What does this fold into?
Amino acid sequence: MGGASKAVKTSKRALAWLVPRSQFHPAIDPDPGPATWILIATVGILSYLLVRLAGTLVLRPELIWPLWPGCALLVAVLFSTRLSLWPMLLLAGFAGFLFNDLRAGVGARQIVLLLLSDVGEILVASFGLRCAFGGRLFLNTTRSLFKYLLIAGLAAPLAAALVCPFALGGQYWVSFRLSFLTEAIALVLITPAIIGWIYMACGLKRRPRAYYVELAAIVAALVPAGFVTFVTSAGSHHPELFYSLVPFLLWAALRLGMTSITTVMVIVAFLSTWGAVHGRGPFALPDSLDNVLSLQLFLLCAAVPFMFLAALAEQHKTAHESLRESETRFRLVANKAPVLIWMSGPDKLCTYVNQPWLDFTRRSIEAELGNGWVDCVHPEDAERCMRTYTEAFDRGEDFRIEYRLRRHDGQYRWFFDHGVPRVTAEGVFAGYIGSAVDVTEAKVAQARLEQTTERLRLAMEAGGIGGWEVDLKTDGKVRFGTKVPALLGLPPEAEFGTAGKFWAQVHPRDRSGLAKAFRAARENHTEFDHEFRVIGHDGTLHWLRTKGKFFYSAEGMPEKILGISVENTERRRAEQALRESEERLRLAVEAGRMSVYSWDSRTDKVERSGHSAQILGIGDATSITGEEILARVHPSDREPVLSAISALGVARPLLQISYRMVRPDNSVIWVEGNGRAYFDEEGKITRIVGMVADVSERKRAEEVLASLNRRLIEAQEADRARIARDLHDDIGQQLALLSLGLAQVNRLGLTPGDEAQSMIDRMEKQVLDITSTVNSLSHRLHSSSLKHLGLTAAARSCCKEVSSQQGVEIKFRDRTGSRSLPPDLALCFFRVLQEALQNAIKHSGVRHFEVELREDADFLELTVSDAGSGFDIETAMNGQGLGLVSMRERLKLVNGELLIRSRSQGGTTVIARAPLAPAASARSLAAV
It folds into this structure.
């Protein structure tokens, strides 16, 4: 027994090396402690009882066991437990065997040989089954049953039969045959039955309640039938009774599986063995050896076919369940997949569509089957779609097609459909299966990408940017974009070139720097950005800025270079011009009365140039505080200065303001400041850099000019009023008298139709038209409604009058309050309205105009807009016309401003804006 324990340990280590530990799943795995000892004791007791039972099934006096269940029990228990318990379980089982042998008076030599035989059989069967099946013995396939029979029905009994004849005595080959068949029957029938019972008891093989009821019914019916067949009166031979067992065996094999057929065969084995031992039934023959051989062959020949039949039934059932589960999974996946799935049969007709397809079309499954699905295909795509499908079907090939499918809301969506042939397991063509993916967004994205690419190409061409590509795998072959040849001095039609041509165009002094930039980018896997000169085909120099990167193979070797080039010649010239301009500015600052300053908000220090002392008269120091500067600002202008500075922001960093400064001698000068503010991450001002110029002379000139303009406009308005009165009171009255005179002549009784009568009628009409024109001209020169009713009423009346006279549509909107306006402000805006409407009607080329008059805070604003042809503002301001200049000068007299927005074929908007009260005029000095 010590040798057996050592063999178990050695085999355990070998098995742990051969089979991964994760594959062992013992069915019986008690917790260490009392449960383990209870299991060991139970195995010992059962072993003893089975040996006692086997003692009742022995043929005497020959002492031949047709069936030995003891080893079958131990193999089933060992296979169902972990390896660490095997030594104790073997000792317990062999103790039951030994106790029974000693009680029966078996000799010591026989006991040792029998134990060696049992150890060999049990270890071969247990280790062999563990290696073949891991931790689960499910004989539900013919392959697994064949492996089991090969190990438990052949190898293990053979290991026992080689030793057992030495213990039994007699002829070796006869004892070998009896031992082999005895152990084979037990391992083939009893071991799988016990393992099946253990699995059902441990819940590893769950069965419905009907299974146990059906098994109980088979056992209840089989026991009487087996008793009649095998345990009848002595010498009774009725072979036809064997056929009464076939329905039960078929029932158990086909309906209930391997555990049931082995259970039924165990019952048959015990009943037949009992009858043979007691001289009853068909196996009660005079010759004991022939009796036992017939019985054993019957049991093996009956058990093995029905076990294979049960394995085939379970295999078919498992395959059917797998197929059904696979179909269920397929339908579940198909119905949950975000694609449209379809199947067709060998007749090219659709046999299945998934639920997303039905959800997409909102049609019944019947409407989609056959060729019904074509009804939802776009008419322009239906013929092409069916042709592609039919041709691929006839050839038995995959096909891919894009088509539009109508959604339930009537919208057509683009789908990419991929169909593949289906074949059965036997290789028979079964139709097609395909999936359609919604690619509408991809189509839209592709179109947008093409548009973006085209816009990029146009932008690159418009901006003078050229793309190029160098293929390093083809000896540096270069492919140029449309703009690059011109930049490099190559012919415009050049599309390809070589590295040699490129380097020939580079200025000799710039080649080394460019080559260094390329080399650094290639070695460091970084982008290169370098500026260099090229020599054009006409000998002129051009500055190019080139940016790009290398692309590498999987082995890290550079394969190509992609880059873009832009001509920087103009920028270089602009930089040179800027440097010259800065130099001229420096000279102008030195020659003129200007001072450059920089104010640090954190220290309140103002750094200024030396000319500041000449302008402000504050001393020669170049550094002064902001508070000292503010103290010199005229008291009336401090608030506008502070407001202008506080209004600066990240979006409006520029400062332009005019204000007065008080010199130490109390003289007042006008200065104009221009600057730019800089901000920190929180948007607070850190410093302001700018320039201050003495504009006192200009201010005085502007005041004189403004005075002249004011007197000129006042004189103009006076002349307008006088002319209007003359037209209305003098010429108007004379025209009225002339009209009355013609009316009196017309009543002298002239004959209707007479030529004189016709001439008088025409003259009378002409006089009336002239009178109307004179009145309109008088009203435009001097509006009485402006004086008596205010700006809003006068503007509305003006719009109606112009609309009527010119045959145009003018939409007037009033968004002003009820406050009364200063006369000069109202007159200014009325004249601007007249001039703007006259220009718009004359030059815009449209017949619809919009006029809006509104109050915004303390400002009055007038807007006249149209959607006409537009014009160039700078050209118009510098032209011979006085309309725009007159409007701007009028607004200056009321501290207002004129803003014009116009572009070619984009319409024109004229905005006049002026403060409502004199207090607001001070703030208009600051404009950012």
